[in-house]
């Protein structure tokens, strides 16, 4: 969701070099941004306060003599290293009492009620100015070599059809479409596209969930959860013919490659964190209780997700895939 900010920073300063400071678990996403020249991995940037570590990090940053720094998280601790690194312009939202640490502050009011992408993108503009209507959609760069290698590793040729299911959502169960629904969807997909490989992609923590989905479906699904690096997962999603996910990081990855996709929303709000892509469709029931933004359903029934029927998701994906076939020139 930060990529449009990076694209705008590049647009306003085309000769500027942009580096990202990121925790290792998301470094691959920044590495896939065409505008980023280098990614510095720092394990503690979002973690505990660890002042000694932040001091060491700031010394590394100081050597690089940055002119400007965009601090995306709202926390106090995330603003400490850029301050100690003496970066002249430190731009961010007001956040947690960071008056001294951030010296070009945005109050976030202009982005209130608007998608999260715009909340970050507003940092590219002068504080207090209205956010333009035309914020670009997130876009990641294709990498043919990496895509070929990732497909090869799972035994897929470049042209073989691939449908990706991402059943995880780090936030909690109230954002995860039930396993039985993913399984029913997988059966519908197998019936419709018997020639396609259906792969379940996610982290090692989602492996047992994916195993359950494969068992419930009775189909030959490829359970790749925990078997790919994030960089490989990104490369596979970039080449997928269709993607179905919850509201998760991989949903935004699929959108950033404009893959035909369906995003299933439960306790969260697609007006806040939508997949910003012309080929994405959203399944959201907008019940009276939603969005509640809870990790677990406080009402105990999880109707917001249980009532999203697999055939509805299947039809949405079919439409998105047909649309792509009709509008994209063959490659
Ligand atoms: S309260 Fe409503 S929106 Fe929240 S998790 Fe439960 S069913 Fe979903």
Structure description:
With 331 residues, the protein is an alpha/beta fold. It has 2 domains: 3-124, Rossmann fold (3-Layer(aba) Sandwich); 148-327, 3-Layer(aba) Sandwich (Rossmann fold). It contains 12 helices and 11 strands. It has a 6-stranded parallel sheet with strand order 8-7-6-9-10-11, with helices on both faces. Helix 6 (144-153) crosses helix 9, helix 7 (179-192) packs across helix 8 (207-217) and helix 7 crosses helix 12 (310-327). The protein is globular, with a radius of gyration of 21 Å. The protein starts with a helix and ends with a helix.
* Rg estimate, integer Å: 21 Å
Structural classification: alpha/beta
User: Termini, distance in Å?
Assistant: 28 Å
Return the string of H and E elements.
HEHEHEHEEHHEHEHEHEHEEHH
> Into which percent range does the helicity of residues fall?
25-40%
How confident is the prediction overall: mean pLDDT? 92
Strand order of the largest sheet: 8-7-6-9-10-11
| Unreliable runs | none
Q: Write down the domain tally.
A: 2
CATH class descriptor of the largest domain: Alpha Beta
Number of helices: 12
| CATH evolutionary superfamily of the largest domain | Glycogen Phosphorylase B
Query: What's the main sheet like?
Result: 6 strands, parallel
